[in-house]
Inverse folding.
C-alpha cells in the first residue's frame, strides 16, 4: 500500500521535475506513459533517461525546474469531517481544554496524509456531541459529502477530564459506528492534547491502511537555545519542547533506541568526541566506554542490540559496530576518506547506509554489516545524511547534485529507490536542507532547513508536500524521529 | 509750542552730557600705582641627553629670571641658572620651582633611562606559550580536502623547526571546517585535517607523544561570514598550546 503510494509519488515528481510549460501536452503524456512502468522493471530505465534528457534539453536554463500541477495526485483520500467536540459538563476549565483538544485533533488528522479534511464551513449548523445527535444525511451528501465523521465531547469534573469520541462511517447508514472510545486523565491542557493524539492515532490506524499513526511519537533534536548545543525532545507536532541533556559542551546527533528507553548521541568531552548514552527511563547519563579518536553519529540497529557509528580511533574515520554496551567493537568499512553517518536498514537489520569521502566529495554508500558488498548510491555532487525508510526500500538523503564553481546548488532532500538508484527531489523551497529522519509510519519526514533564515526543524509528507515548521526558538538541528 | 519742546530736549541733552562727563572723569584719573608689580619669574629646564642607558649620566641645564629662590626636586636649592650632572637610576621627571616676588614658575624635564643589556635577561622574558602563539603558523586547507597543500609546506617546516627548538612544548591540533556541508561529515573531515597536520609534523621529526588532535568540524568558526575569504579562514589546522 505504502509502496504503491510512494511509487505514485515517485513518478509524479519525476514528471514534474521537468518544466511542463515548454512543450506540448502530447510529449508530456508520452513521458508519462514511458515513466509509468519504469519503477517496476529496471530494463526500461533507458527510455526514462531519454525522456528526462529531452525535458532538460528543452528547458531554458533559467526556468523553474519544477511545477506543481495537481495532476495524478494519487488515490482519492477518505473525506473526513471533524466537528469541534462539545462540552459535556459546565466546568470553567472546559473551554481551554476543548480548544487544545480540538486544535490538536484537527492538526493530527490533517497532518496524517491519509485523509482529506472536509472544511468546517460545509458542516451543518447542528454538530453532534454524541451518537444520538448524528443525522447521517446531513453529513453523507453535499455540501460536506463526508465519508467519515469523527465527533464527541469533553468535560472536566473534579479535576479530571473525560473525553468520549466516535468515528462514524456515514455512508453506512445501517451500522455506522467504526470506533467508540472513552479517555480519562488529569484536567490539564497537556493531558487534553495527549488524549487528542491517542484518538487521532486510532482514527489514522483505521483509515490509513492499518499503519499506526505517529501522533504519540517524539522527535529528538539538537538546540542551542540554552547557550550550548544540547539534546532536546518535542512532540511530533512541535509542542511540548523540553531539554534532555545538560552536558555544557557540544552535543550532537541524537539517536533514540527502538524501544525509546535510551538516547545515544555524540558529545565533545575532555578526551575528544565520544559516544554518550542517556537513559530516558532513569533521566540520567549511563556509561558507554570512551574509545579515543573522534567518535560520531551513532545509529541503533532495529533490534536495539547494536550501535553503528563513526570512529577515527585507528586513523581515518571509519564505520564501526559495537554492542549497545560498547563491547564487541569491530570495524566495518576500510575506505580512504572519512566514513560517517551510518544508518541501518531496519527491515533487514543487516545493511548499513553511510557517507564516505573516499572519492573526494562525500557520497552515500550501502554496505552489509559484515563489511561486504559496498555499493555507491549517489552518482555525483555532495551527498550526505542518508535515512533509511522504515519499509527498507528508500533512502532519504541530503544532496547538492550540481556541485561546483558556477553551480551554487543548494542542499535539498531527495528520495532514492535503493534497488534502481532512481531518485526524486523532495524539497525545492530554498535554504540548506539536511538530516532527514523518517517517522515510524514511513509517510512523514522530519528534517532541518535554513529556509526561514536560520536552521530550524521542519516536517513534511514523504512526497514533499504539507511542509510545516516545528521549531522557532534558537538554532535547531539534526532531528531524529522515535521508532514508535 | 515747538520751540518749548526744543528747549526741553536741549536741557535733557545738556544734563546727560554733564552726568557722563562727571562719571568719566573719575575713572580717567586713577591714583598712580604705588610701584610697578615685579615681573613674573621665568624658568626653563632641560636635560641633555634626555635618554640614557642605566648607569650613565646626563646634564641638567636650567635658566631662570626674576627668581630669588630656585630649587629642583631631588637636588635641592640651586643657583638661578646653572647646570649639573645627574645619574638617575630610573626614568625621572626633574621638577624645577622658581619663586620670586612676581610669583612662582615651574619647569620640568624628563630623563628616560633604558635598561642596559644585562638587565634584559633578568626581566620577565616571553613565556614559551607567548613564543608558541607568535611563532606557530596554522595550516590552511582546500575545500573538502585534508591533504597538506603545497603552499602550506613552509608553514609545516617552520612549525616543526620551532617545535624542535622548544622540545618541552606539548600542543593540540584542532581541525576546523567551513560552514558548508553536513555537521557530521565536517567533524570527520576536521578530524582528518588535524591528523594530516599531526602526520606531517611527525614526519618532520616532532615526537607523536607531544601532539593531540581534536576536530571541531564547523562548530567553532573563526569567521562567520558566508564568503570564500571567510571560509578559507575556517578551513584550518589550528595549534593550541597545552599547559
Amino acid at each position: 500500500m505504502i509502496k504503491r503510494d510512494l511509487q505514485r509519488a515517485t513518478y509524479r515528481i519525476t514528471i514534474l521535475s521537468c518544466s511542463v510549460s515548454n512543450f506540448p501536452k502530447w510529449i508530456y503524456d508520452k513521458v508519462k506513459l514511458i515513466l509509468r512502468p519504469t519503477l517496476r522493471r529496471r530494463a526500461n530505465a533507458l527510455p526514462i533517461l531519454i525522456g528526462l534528457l529531452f525535458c532538460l534539453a528543452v528547458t531554458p536554463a533559467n526556468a523553474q525546474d519544477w511545477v506543481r500541477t495537481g495532476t495524478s495526485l494519487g488515490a482519492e483520500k477518505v473525506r473526513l469531517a471533524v466537528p469541534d467536540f462539545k462540552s459535556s459538563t459546565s466546568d470553567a476549565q472546559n473551554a481551554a481544554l476543548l480548544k487544545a483538544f480540538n486544535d490538536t485533533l484537527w492538526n493530527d488528522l490533517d497532518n496524517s496524509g491519509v485523509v482529506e479534511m472536509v472544511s468546517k464551513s460545509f458542516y451543518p449548523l447542528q454538530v453532534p456531541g454524541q451518537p444520538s445527535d448524528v443525522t447521517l444525511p446531513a453529513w453523507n451528501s453535499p455540501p460536506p459529502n463526508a465519508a467519515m465523521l469523527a465527533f464527541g465531547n469533553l468535560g472536566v469534573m473534579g479535576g479530571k477530564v473525560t473525553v468520549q469520541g466516535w468515528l462514524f462511517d456515514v455512508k453506512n447508514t445501517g451500522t455506522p459506528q467504526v470506533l467508540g472510545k472513552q479517555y480519562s486523565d488529569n484536567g490539564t491542557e497537556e493531558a487534553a492534547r495527549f488524549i487528542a493524539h491517542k484518538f487521532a492515532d486510532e482514527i489514522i490506524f483505521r483509515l490509513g491502511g492499518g499503519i499506526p499513526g505517529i501522533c504519540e511519537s517524539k522527535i529528538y533534536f539538537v538546540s542551542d537555545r540554552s547557550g550550548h548545543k544540547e539534546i532536546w525532545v518535542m512532540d511530533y507536532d512541535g509542542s511540548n519542547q523540553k531539554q534532555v541533556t545538560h552536558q555544557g559542551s557540544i552535543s550532537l546527533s541524537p539517536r533514540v533506541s527502538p524501544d525509546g528507553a535510551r538516547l545515544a548521541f555524540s558529545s565533545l568531552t575532555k578526551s575528544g568526541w565520544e559516544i554518550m548514552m542517556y537513559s530516558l527511563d532513569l533521566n540520567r547519563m549511563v556509561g558507554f566506554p570512551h574509545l579515543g579518536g573522534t567518535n560520531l553519529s551513532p545509529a541503533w540497529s532495529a533490534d536495539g542490540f547494536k550501535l553503528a557509528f563513526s570512529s577515527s580511533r585507528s586513523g581515518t574515520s571509519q564505520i564501526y559496530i559495537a554492542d549497545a554496551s560498547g563491547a564487541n567493537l569491530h570495524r566495518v568499512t576500510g575506505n580512504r576518506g572519512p566514513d560517517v553517518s551510518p544508518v541501518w536498514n531496519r527491515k533487514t537489520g543487516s545493511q548499513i547506509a553511510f557517507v564516505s569521502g573516499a572519492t573526494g566529495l562525500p557520497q552515500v554508500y550501502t554496505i552489509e554489516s559484515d563489511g561486504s558488498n559496498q555499493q555507491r548510491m549517489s552518482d555525483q555532487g555532495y551527498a550526505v545524511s542518508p535515512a533509511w525508510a522504515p519499509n527498507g526500500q528508500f533512502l532519504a538523503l541530503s544532496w547538492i547534485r550540481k556541485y561546483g564553481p558556477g553551480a551554487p546548488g543548494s542542499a535539498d532532500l531527495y528520495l532514492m529507490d535503493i534497488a534502481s538508484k532512481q531518485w526524486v527531489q523532495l524539497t525545492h523551497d530554498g535554504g540548506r536542507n539536511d538530516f532527514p529522519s523518517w517517522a515510524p509510519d514511513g509517510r512523514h519526514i522530519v528534517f532541518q532547513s535554513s529556509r526561514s533564515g536560520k536552521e530550524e526543524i521542519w516536517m513534511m509528507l514523504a512526497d514533499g508536500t504539507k511542509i510545516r515548521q516545528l521549531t522557532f526558538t534558537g538554532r535547531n538541528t539534526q532531528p531524529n524521529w522515535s521508532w514508535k | 509750542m515747538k520751540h518749548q519742546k526744543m528747549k526741553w530736549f536741549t536741557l535733557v541733552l545738556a544734563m546727560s552730557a554733564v552726568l557722563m562727563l562727571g562719571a568719566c572723569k573719575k575713572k580717567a584719573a586713577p591714583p598712580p600705582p604705588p610701584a610697578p608689580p615685579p615681573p613674573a619669574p621665568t624658568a626653563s629646564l632641560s636635560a641633555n641627553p634626555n635618554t640614557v642607558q642605566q648607569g650613565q649620566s646626563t646634564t641638567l641645564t636650567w635658566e631662570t629670571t626674576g627668581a630669588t629662590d630656585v630649587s629642583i626636586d631631588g637636588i635641592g636649592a640651586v643657583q638661578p641658572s646653572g647646570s649639573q650632572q645627574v645619574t638617575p637610576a630610573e626614568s625621572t621627571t626633574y621638577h624645577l620651582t622658581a619663586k620670586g616676588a612676581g610669583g612662582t614658575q615651574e619647569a620640568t624635564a624628563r630623563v628616560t633611562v633604558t635598561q642596559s643589556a644585562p638587565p634584559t635577561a633578568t626581566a620577565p622574558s616571553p613565556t614559551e606559550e607567548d613564543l608558541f602563539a607568535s611563532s606557530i603558523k596554522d595550516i590552511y586547507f582546500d575545500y573538502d580536502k585534508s591533504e597538506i597543500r603545497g603552499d602550506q609546506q613552509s608553514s609545516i617546516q617552520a612549525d616543526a623547526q620551532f617545535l624542535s627548538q622548544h622540545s618541552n612544548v606539548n600542543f593540540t591540533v584542532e581541525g576546523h571546517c567551513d560552514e558548508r556541508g553536513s555537521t557530521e561529515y565536517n567533524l570527520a573531515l576536521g578530524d582528518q585535517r588535524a591528523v594530516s597536520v599531526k602526520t606531517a609534523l611527525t614526519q618532520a621529526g616532532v615526537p607523536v607523544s607531544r601532539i593531540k588532535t581534536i576536530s571541531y568540524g564547523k562548530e567553532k568558526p573563526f569567521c562567520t561570514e558566508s564568503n570564500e575569504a571567510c571560509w578559507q579562514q575556517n578551513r584550518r589546522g589550528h595549534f593550541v598550546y597545552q599547559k
